[in-house]
Design brief:
Blueprint lengths: L19 E5 L3 H12 L3 E5 L4 H7 L9 E2 L6 H4 L4 E4 L8 H8 L4 E3 H6 L6 E5 L4 H14 L4 E5 L5 H4 L8 E5 L2 H4 L9 E4 L13 H9 L10 E5 L3 H6 L6 E6 L7 E4 L4 E5 L2 E5 L9 H16 L4 H10 L8 E6 L2 E5 L6 H8 L6 E5 L12 H7 E6 L4 H8 L5 E3 L3 H11 L5 E4 L12 H13 L13
Parallel strand pairs: 1-2, 1-4, 2-3, 4-5, 6-8, 6-9, 7-8, 9-10, 10-11, 11-12, 16-20, 17-18, 17-20, 18-19
Antiparallel strand pairs: 12-13, 13-14, 15-16
Helix pairs in contact: 6-11, 6-12
């Protein structure tokens, strides 16, 4: 019988040699998949919307992989002979060419599903609309400081497929996963799955919010009773997502004191379980905001379940520096504080960021519209923001939905937005970049947007050439 991946419903393929595998999307993850498949003898067919010269400039080794290339829309008969299709995270699984190929019973999987067929190291997987990266890094640093050999990857930077050959002598793999990565899993199973929160996001990709919740819920679909689900009990959508979960459940809840799992009494994180009660002090952390208390709670219960000593957990809480572009303090100019929250690409993230500050805020928001509802921002803006500065592609729609709450200014660029915020701010104010949108209208990614913001802040002088940014 011809070797095929069409038995993957019951048996995971191990030997890829000679198989025809279509890789759709040749960005960082897709190229990592192509390398992995080529080194294991597969016949790789690549497909990408970008022209070959663009791809070769970004990935000089492309030709060395001896891949065939095809057009997803025009070469259906060639693609129909594929044994397996692997999707990069940026490719929606419901586009018409893939629907037609799926009707031919060709299995379509995500990169994390493919990697899971070969990765034998236990997996801790973290997902959620916000806080994924912070929580993933907290967990990994706690485990590493506690003596475990840990690999970190997924949405955080290193594709999971790369970890297959990097986990020899490793005790655990800690993954940050997006909803995109979970869409096309079949048997992927973490022994610990953490779901932090679910708020509106990526509605430019999902037809409904329910579809987005369903994608997040797939984290738990293959877990067994011997596995663990770490869940935010204060989030109704998380509770709904975990409804059919078979794993043991460990809850954290920032709004209710004295509950089992992790709770917050306004000052300390209290972890209550069969062994007794443990107290952790988040006030010694360098992280801002109640949302980071939630991230710490999820990390604490995960690390403690995996055997990390209590004193090590507290040490990491106190020494973890946080992330660039996530409520990152940029500097102070003439008594005005500037914070870079470029990674705040959805409404839920912005709400949590606004809740961090008590003083008057000038909020810079806008970018590429992701299709979500901006109305939930009205109340926190009314309570905490004294002026709203909008920029980017989404600024017109945002002004319609948020207009009349506080004074509002539309600008044509991030540079103009920073200049406007600078002229409006007074000593004691906070200027916060927290866009509620993606960056792709004007920037390569949120990192470039955040770095641009930081450079603009560093250049602020209010006309005084001797004025420096004070840190």
């Amino acid at each position: 019988m011809t070797k095929t991946a069409r038995q993957t419903e019951t048996q995971k393929p191990v030997d890829l040699s000679g198989m025809r595998v279509l890789v759709v999307g040749l960005a960082r993850t897709g190229m990592a998949v192509a390398r992995f498949l080529t080194h294991r003898g597969a016949r790789v067919i690549g497909s990408d919307s970008r022209r070959m010269e663009v791809l070769e400039k970004e990935f000089p080794e492309l030709r060395q992989l001896e891949m065939d290339f095809c057009d997803l829309n025009r070469d259906q008969e060639v693609l129909a002979r594929a044994d397996l299709i692997v999707l990069s995270p940026g490719v929606p699984p419901d586009i018409e060419p893939l629907v037609r190929l799926r009707q031919r019973n060709i299995p379509i999987v995500s990169e994390i599903e493919l990697a899971s067929w070969y990765l034998t190291t236990p997996i801790i997987a973290v997902t959620g609309t916000n806080g994924k990266t912070t929580t993933t890094l907290l967990i990994s640093k706690m485990l590493q400081r506690g003596g475990r050999q840990v690999s970190v990857g997924g949405n955080i930077g290193n594709p999971m497929i790369n970890l297959v050959d990097q986990t020899e002598n490793k005790d655990m793999v800690v993954l940050e996963l997006s909803s995109f990565q979970l869409e096309a899993i079949r048997g992927f199973r973490p022994f610990v799955g953490a779901l932090l929160n679910i708020t509106e996001d990526h509605l430019d990709r999902y037809p409904t919010f329910d579809a987005y919740v369903e994608a997040k819920s797939r984290l738990f679909m293959n877990q067994k009773t011997s596995d663990v689900a770490v869940l935010n009990a204060a989030d109704p959508y998380v509770k709904r997502a975990a409804h059919a979960c078979k794993a043991q459940r460990i809850y954290f809840n920032v709004t209710k004191k004295g509950t089992d799992g992790a709770s917050f009494n306004g000052r300390h994180i209290v972890v209550r379980e069969s062994r007794g009660e443990e107290i952790y002090d988040p006030e010694k952390s360098r992280l801002f905001g109640i949302h980071n208390v939630e991230n710490m709670m999820a990390a604490i219960v995960t690390a403690r379940f995996c055997g990390c000593p209590k004193e090590v957990v507290q040490e990491i809480i106190e020494t973890f520096d946080g992330l660039d572009h996530r409520l990152e303090f940029v500097g102070e100019v003439e008594g005005i504080r500037y914070f870079n929250d470029s990674k705040g690409t959805n409404v839920g993230a912005v709400v949590r960021s606004l809740e961090t500050f008590s003083g008057p805020i000038i909020l810079i928001a806008g970018g590429k519209d992701k299709g979500g509802d901006y109305l939930p921002l009205r109340t926190p803006i009314r309570e905490r923001v004294k002026h709203l500065v909008l920029t980017g592609e989404a600024r017109t729609r945002m002004s319609r939905e948020l207009g009349g709450v506080v004074p509002l200014t539309l600008t044509d660029s991030l540079e103009a937005a920073v200049e406007k915020a600078h002229t409006l701010a007074q000593p004691g104010d906070t200027v916060l970049l927290s866009p509620a949108c993606s960056s792709y209208d004007m920037f390569r990614d949120y990192v470039e947007r955040g770095n641009t913001f930081k450079a603009l802040v560093q250049g602020l002088t209010r006309g005084d050439e001797n004025q420096k940014v004070v840190r």
